[in-house]
Structures are given as C-alpha cells and as structure tokens.
Design goal:
555 residues, 3-stranded mixed sheet, two-stranded antiparallel ribbon, disordered N terminus
C-alpha cells in the first residue's frame, strides 16, 4: 500500500504503521474498514493467525511505551491504542479469541459476507474477486483449525444453540457466496466468469467441510441451553466482553438496575403516544394497529430500497448546514438490500479513498415482503445521517492517522452515537408524526430491554419480576423480549440468539447513548457559549474510540 498519509508525530506514524500491518494480517477486516489493498486475500483464523495479531498488538504497545506524546492529538491516539489493544490482549489471555462461533460475528460470517463489499464487472475487479474466491478454502480450513483448537483446549464450551444455528448457516453459505458473486459479475455464463471457472465449487466444498466439522465434531460435545455455559458466559467472563464493546469498565450491577429503570420510562412514554394515536388502546394494540395503516406499508424490497434512499436523502438535505456540518462527500448514503437473509440491518463505511460509498444494508429474511415505515424511519437515521454514516464517514475524511480513521471503532461509541442520533431526531422535530415517534420509542425500548437481558442472562443476575424472577432461562428470556419488542418472531429469534452468542454487544447501544448524552451536557457546561452543533462537530472530529477515551478527550 502506498503510504500517502503525513507521518506527523512518531505516535501518528506508529498508529499508521499498525493499521497497515493489521490490515495485512486481517484482510477481511481491512475490507470492512475500507482498506482495499488486500482484497485478493482472506484472513487466517487459525490459532497461529490469531496469535500473529496478538503479537502485533504486544509489539505496538511496547513501541508506544517508548514514545512521548507531543500534543493533544497524540494523547488521544495513545489512549485509544492502549485501551483497544489492551482489551484485545485480555481476550487473548482468557482464551476467548480462538474458535469463535456465533450467529452473527464469527469467522463463518466474516468469510461469507466480505464478498458483499467487493466491486465486480471490470477485468481488474473480477481478477481480485477470483483471487479472493480461490482463498476461501484455505480461510475456511483455518477457521476449522480454530474450532478444533478450542475443542482440544477444553476451555470455554460451545453452546449448542450457536452450533445449531451456525450449522444451518454453513450449509447455505457456499451457495450464497456463489450466487452473490455471480450477480456482481454480471451472471453471463462464460469460461472467464469466476463463478463458472470452478472456483465456486471450491467455495461450496469448503463451507460443506465447515458444516461437517460442526455436525460431527462440535455438536456432539456442545452444551445444551439448560446446562451451565449453555445460555450465558458467566459473571467472571462477562466483564472483559463488556469492556471490549464499551471501552469502559462499567458497574454491571448498577447498569443492570439502570436498564430496568430506563425500560420502564420508555414504556410509560409509549403509553402516552398510544393514547394520542388510538385512545384507549394498549401499546401492544397500538403497534398492531400501526401495521395495518396503509400509509405506513411498503410492498416488496424494491419499494423498501427506494423508501430508504428517499428518507436518507431528505434527512441530509434538512440537516446539512443547520444542525450538523456534513461534508459534501457524505451527502449520499447508498441504500441496498443485502444478498444474505439473516434479518439484520447494518452500515458499512466508505473506503479510505472514498471510491466505495458508505452503505446501509437491509438483510431481508426469506418470505418477508411487507415492511412498515413507522417502525423503520428511525432505523434510517440510525444507520445514515445523523447516525453511522455521518459519524464513520466523517472520521474517514478527517485529517487523522489511519488507526483513528478506520480501526478504532468501538460499539459503545459507534452504536451509542447512532442511538443518540435517533433520540436527537425526535428533539429536532423529525419524528412529529406519532407513528414514526412510536417507532423510535420501540427502537429505544428494544435497546433498553437488551441491557437487561444481556447483562442479566450472561452474569446470572436475578430475572425481573415480570418473568417470574429467579434464574434466567431460555423461555424467560424469550418471553421478556416478546413483551418488549415489536418484531416478527422470525426476526426476534435471530436477535435473541445473537445476544446469547455475542455477550456484551447488545447493551453497548443504550449504555453508549447514556455516555454520549452525559458528554454533551458536560461539554456545554464546560464551554460557555458553545452550541450542540459545536459539540457534534468537535466530538465527531475525534474519530472512533472507547467511551472512557471519549470523555477524557472532550474535556
């Protein structure tokens, strides 16, 4: 990669070098963050590959300790590096970084989904695509090596639920990748088509091997949901996961109690809105009625994509130059329907050179053809502007080192900002329609419920009285979610299983929002005469980081 970023200070230069070296050791993540120089490769997920990344972290921290910060920017970079690499090494020391397996963010999904982000249709792009397809068998085999190492290690167990769901995904992954690449490459049968050249057969065979290992080696020793380790990771293991997603060590007992209080306050607000929409109706009845309102209904994914794009474009036009400073390069968000069918909605940032735009992806479950805008307008604000697209895109074009531009994203910071953005749009008058407002409150209620569920289940805290108290069980968790989340059972089941397999991530949204709101209040109190727009400008200019680093930097 041609290094065109000014070196600045020694700490800046170290952060730049680390970002490029990390990209080379993890090409899948490099593609995700927008570094495209390694798009012809895939990541080594074997114990050796994982250790190589841990060794790079240790080496970088040792070099950082020999350097002296020359300015405030250096201090932020150094604090961000120390915090992020430190928690990475803590996960490694706990044996939690090898053989990862969950329904949303493990090597299986990383290899499958990275092809969504690749260009195709030109000779150069197709050559890169073919090279990466050819790398799939080796990368999948490295992930298998990770699974076997975790089995041999006898460390943290494989939950049966995650194994079963991933097995189903693995059986479909080969065909999904092949079909996606064929679609991107133009789908014209020819000897030169990467899908027709035999590479697709290797991809299918690789994922079939992964499925066989799950079925024949992992599943027989997986821990059932009702057994210890089958539902949550436990109070001892959970703090490092929580810190990984927050960049802060929070008081888990206090946060669990706060989550229940937050949830109750949102429910009370929903009841007020329900009374205005349909006098006498309960919140549940109101949500059901909103789904029948023709003005909120979209039919088909084409209509969904067009509505997403229109809503995004309108928000940018309204916010730019008024409540936010939005660079011209970020005025467009590419709204897409994802090739997979997991039910997730997510954002991918622009590439470092801006040749790939920021994009909002909607992964529509098979058979779902009807969508409700009352529920999803707030989602466009979350993923687009002023949410992820503004936050992440602004970091990409900012005069920061590559680490801070592309790699220092932390869920509590990023998802907390996006949830903060949803509530902010209500305060700015963009959710004056009570149906859209109910959708935003529904989104906030979901995130508050996740604080309670995730911390409660994984730490083994007492369940709320509304589900009978006592120990959390799978059925209590499901009943709790269904009572608080307006989502189809199919989508909600995926979400539930995601929380069980990805400890610490789900609470990061509401906890992050809490920190962002406090940071704004502290900023305004400490900077007399400043406006909220000034806060947004200064905070977003910092790039991604852990929540503790954010609070320190803004002071």
């Amino acid at each position: 990669m041609a290094d065109t970023t000014p070196a600045g200070t020694p700490i800046d230069a170290l952060a730049d070098r680390f970002a490029l070296r990390l990209a080379e050791t993890d090409p899948v993540e490099a593609t995700a963050v927008g570094i495209t120089d390694f798009d012809d490769r895939l990541t080594d997920f074997s114990p050796g590959g994982v250790e190589a990344r841990a060794a790079l972290a240790r080496e970088t921290l040792a070099e950082l300790d020999r350097l002296v910060a020359e300015n405030d920017a250096d201090r932020v970079t150094a604090a961000s590096l120390r915090e992020r690499l430190g928690v990475h090494l803590d996960l490694a020391a706990a044996g939690r970084d090898v053989g990862e397996l969950n329904v949303i963010a493990s090597p299986l999904q990383a290899i499958r989904d990275v092809f969504d982000l690749m260009p195709a249709g030109t000779p150069d792009a197709d050559a890169v695509l073919s090279a990466r397809l050819a790398a799939v068998p080796t990368s999948v085999d490295s992930a298998i090596s990770g699974l076997r190492s975790r089995l041999a290690d006898g460390g943290h167990p494989f939950p049966e639920l995650q194994v079963r769901e991933c097995l189903a995904q693995a059986r479909l992954a080969g065909d999904q990748v092949a079909a996606n690449v064929e679609r991107m490459a133009g789908a014209a049968p020819s000897a030169d088509d990467p899908v027709r050249s035999g590479l697709a057969d290797g991809v299918r065979a690789a994922f079939a091997r992964f499925a066989e290992v799950l079925e024949n080696e992992v599943a027989p020793v997986a821990v059932p949901v009702g057994a210890p380790g089958g539902l949550g990771v436990g109070r001892e293991a959970y703090p490092v996961y929580s810190r990984a997603f927050l960049g802060s060590a929070v008081d888990l007992e206090e946060t669990y109690a706060w989550g229940q209080e937050l949830l109750a306050s949102i429910v009370a607000e929903q009841r007020e809105v329900a009374g205005r929409l349909y006098p006498g109706a309960t919140v549940a009845e109101t949500l059901a009625k909103l789904d029948t309102e023709p003005r909120y209904v979209l039919h088909g994914t084409d209509a969904l994509r067009e509505w997403m794009q229109r809503t995004s474009d309108e928000s940018v036009r309204a916010l730019a130059g008024t409540h936010f400073d939005i660079p011209e390069q970020l005025h467009h968000l590419d709204c897409r329907i994802a090739p997979s069918s997991s039910g997730g909605i997510y954002y991918t940032g622009p590439s470092a050179d801006l040749s790939r735009p920021g994009a909002m992806w909607w992964s529509v479950p098979q058979g779902v053809t009807e969508f409700h805008t009352w529920q999803e307008k707030t989602t466009v604000y979350h993923e687009g502007v002023p949410g992820h697209h503004l936050q992440i895109g602004q970091a990409v074009i900012a005069p920061l080192n590559r680490w801070r531009k592309l790699y220092s994203f932390t869920s509590g910071h990023g998802e907390g900002w996006a949830l903060y953005a949803e509530r902010l749009m209500r305060d700015l008058g963009f959710l004056d329609d009570d149906g859209d407002l109910m959708g935003m409150l529904d989104s906030q209620r979901l995130r508050a419920a996740r604080v309670v569920l995730d911390i409660g289940v994984h730490c083994g805290f007492a369940a709320p009285a509304e589900v009978g108290g006592g120990d959390w069980t799978y059925d209590k968790g499901w009943a709790f979610l269904r009572s608080h989340v307006a989502m189809s059972d199919e989508q909600l089941r995926f979400e539930y299983h995601r929380y069980l397999g990805w400890p610490g991530q789900a609470p990061s949204y509401s906890v992050g929002q809490r920190v962002w709101e406090r940071a704004r209040d502290e900023y305004l109190a400490g900077h007399p005469g400043s406006t909220v727009r000034d806060f947004h400008r200064d905070a977003l200019a910092l790039g991604g980081m852990g929540l503790d680093t954010l609070r320190t930097a803004l002071r």
